[in-house]
Amino acid sequence: MLWLTLGLILFLGVHATRIVAEDWRSRQLARLGEKRWKGLYSLVSALGLGLMVWGYGQARLTPLPLWAVPKGMNHLAGLLMLGSLVLLAAAYVPRNHLKSRLAHPMLLAVKVWALAHLLANNTAADLLLFGSFLLWAVLDFRSARRRPAATAPATSTLAGTLATGAIGVTAWAAFVLGLHQWLIGVRPFG
Q1: Which uninterrupted H or E stretch holds 143?
Q2: Facing residues of 123 across strands?
Q3: 102 vs 6: CA distance, rounded Å
Q4: Which helix (H) or strand (E) holds 54?
Q5: How far apart are CA 67 and CA 51, in angstroms?
Q6: For the stretch 44-81, what's the b/e string if a residue is b when 16 or more beta carbons lie within 10 angstroms of its beta carbon?
Q7: What residues have CB less than 8 Å from 110, skipping those under 6 apart?
Q8: For the chain, what percent of residues have pLDDT higher than 90?
Q9: What digits encode the pLDDT tens for the residues 11-47?
């Protein structure tokens, strides 16, 4: 689990700079400029993501179960994932009610995603991966809510909200019908 841990440190570490080192982040942004900062940020994120994916895959080869998963948890996780994917869509679809109401739907999507996967999985690698993301999302959400809003919330429309729901449901259906198995190697409903 060394590679998974290193990947998490790099990926979540760079994503946590606004939580734990806002002043340092601002100084680096000013020193490097926005393009170089974003380039370095993206490079570290990509390296961390790659190590996380590879490390998690390696950890799955020799799983260390920590608890028994109660019957039906994969179905509950599937239902939570529907909500998570709608929230994820809300982060990107313009002028939807969820984004204007919740302000940080991406972080809420990560929280729900991590919780869903913790409910349905039981190994040490699962706890490390999904628990780390859940903790990060909780702390980042709290930090984001304390920062002043960068812009006024956009006016939401019914069309934007319906598109958000449609995209989220379509993504959920794609994962259920085979995308999750193709990408991760696991069928969501066993």
Answers
A1: helix 124-146
A2: 65
A3: 32
A4: helix 34-61
A5: 26
A6: ebeebeebbbebbeebbeeeeeeeeeeeeebeebbebb
A7: 84, 133, 134, 136, 137
A8: 88
A9: 999 999 999 999 999 999 999 999 999 999 999 999 9
